[in-house]
Design a protein that fits this description.
Length: 506
């Protein structure tokens, strides 16, 4: 026969403080049961033990269960849990995060009922504590024979799950959530977590940091050590976050930028990842914010502020190195593109002449006309095949088509060549996108222009942008007297061929 137990509040002052806080995400509520299992392993010093989350979201009676292999609880211990809400035996243990004794009530964010099956060490009996949403009473009884645990430990079953909760608590979402929230503890091997749905199970692993590791020493305070494990990535190609790890080695918040004190760069640049760990930090009851106490929290803020200059310097250095490397590589690809494009155009016509003139100073670069009947070598298949971005760039010096040759001087041999145009960041940028240096045959681009900033983080788009600038500068420079319509025609003819030879991702 089931024993009826009236729920009691053991600490009224704490209850008044905490009851105004709620869980904002069903995954946060589920995480409370994971926290209880993790705390059990920490308290007993059992490293590497498994926490299992079992999902059964389909069918008439969906259920979610969280299971550990800890010491378990006797009937008396389960009575104490029900009779002493808001008073936890773990409150003074800095290794754990369960210090309010309300995690058991988080089931109400998920479903209508919760059943906690537990078998204590040294006992053959399994006891079950039943709770219902909104009910002031719980019931305690021995578990049915088919629900008895074969080994010590605890399993919490969540029943009558809300439809919206079932859509959120998928295996993929839970794994990703726990990877962020419990990554530090998983990386240290304190315990492991497995999420099972049907016949498939997935082990939650810590997120792998990427980028350059910042060698920032830990700081010692009156409230313990503050440790930094920060990494700077070359490109903001995906969302990167710095987690804040607090009491019990559990992530307090996923992203430090959620705090008003750090809601700007470098923490919002998507180039910094890792964590800041400070055991003195505690979570609010909803597990979505840091408890802003007057002692530990200001120390944490000052410590993070002190490392910001170093983080910014590394970001600037890495970004500059990557930009220079990318610019050099793309400049070689641009040269190759225009080597093929101009050879192709030269075979058809000289694209650098308009109807304005044929002579030097008349609106076009001068070139001797070929002898009538003199054969031209047509472009071969290799000239028309678009290269891949992964292909090896050819040597820096390429034979130059006649279209880019300088005006002939006395005694100069026909066919004299100079290097193909290249691209480089403008050392003295102004408001224009680009400018052409005819002496150095360099198209300088403005790396502060809005258009450049739009495409700079996508290499394919950046290559197309730079190629377009080179085409524009060459056509404009070689046709100074052309009318707008004529200039536009020359530019279109150039760009059509340029785009045919731009390498594509494979």
């Amino acid at each position: 026969m089931a024993e009826k137990i009236r729920l009691r509040i053991g600490d009224l002052a704490k209850a008044v403080l905490i009851t105004g806080q709620a869980y904002q995400d069903p995954k946060d509520a589920l995480n409370e049961f994971v926290s209880n299992a993790a705390d059990e392993y920490v308290e007993t010093g059992r490293r590497g033990e498994r926490i299992r989350i079992i999902l059964r979201r389909k069918g008439k009676r969906p259920v979610v269960a969280v299971e550990d292999a800890g010491r378990g609880m006797s009937a008396e211990r389960l009575r104490e849990v029900a009779r002493n809400l808001f008073r936890s035996t773990k409150a003074d243990d800095p290794r754990t995060i369960g210090e309010k004794a309300i995690g058991i009530l988080s089931f109400q964010q998920l479903g209508g009922r919760c059943s906690i099956y537990s078998r204590a060490d040294g006992s053959p009996d399994t006891w079950v504590l039943h709770l219902a949403r909104g009910s002031p009473r719980a019931s305690l009884q021995k578990a049915e024979a088919h629900r008895r645990r074969s080994t010590p430990g605890t399993t919490a079953y969540l029943h009558d799950l809300d439809p919206d909760v079932l859509r959120v608590l998928t295996r993929r979402k839970i794994v990703d959530y726990l990877r962020r929230r419990r990554g530090p503890a998983l990386a240290r091997g304190e315990y492991s977590i497995e999420v099972q749905e049907g016949r498939s199970a997935e082990l939650v692993t810590a997120e792998e940091p990427d980028g350059i590791h910042l060698d920032i020493p830990a700081g010692n305070t009156l409230w313990g050590r503050i440790e930094f494990a920060l990494y700077v990535a070359p490109r903001p190609d995906r969302r990167r976050r710095v987690a804040v790890v607090g009491r019990g080695g559990t992530t307090v918040i996923d992203d430090i930028a959620e705090l008003d004190e750090f809601s700007e760069e470098p923490w919002t640049a998507d180039q910094v990842s890792g964590m800041v760990a400070f055991d003195a930090l505690q979570q609010t009851a909803g597990r979505r914010a840091i408890l802003r106490d007057r002692e530990a929290f200001p120390v944490f803020v000052d410590a993070v502020r002190s490392v910001e200059p170093a983080v910014r310097r590394v970001i600037e250095r890495v970004t500059k190195e990557v930009d220079e490397e990318t610019a050099d590589r793309l400049a070689e690809i641009v040269r190759r593109i225009f080597g093929k494009v101009l050879r192709e155009l030269e075979d058809v016509d000289n694209p650098m002449r308009t109807l304005v003139g044929q002579g030097e100073g008349e609106g076009a670069l001068f070139e001797e006309e070929p002898t009538p009947g003199e054969p031209r070598e047509p472009p071969g298949p290799a000239d028309l095949e678009p290269p891949s971005l992964q292909e090896t760039v050819p040597p820096a010096v390429d034979p130059e088509p006649a279209a880019l040759q300088a005006p002939p001087q006395a005694g100069a041999e026909r066919g004299r060549s100079r290097s193909l145009p290249t691209v480089a960041p403008d050392p003295n940028p102004d408001s224009v996108r680009s400018r052409y240096d005819p002496e150095g045959r360099i198209v300088y681009y403005n790396d502060q222009h809005a258009d450049y900033l739009i495409v700079k983080d996508d290499e394919q788009s950046l290559l197309e942008y730079l190629s377009t600038l080179v085409a524009k500068e060459l056509v404009v420079y070689n046709n100074p007297r052309a009318q707008p319509g004529e200039l536009g025609e020359e530019l279109v003819r150039m760009l059509v061929r340029v785009r045919r030879h731009i390498p594509r991702r494979r």
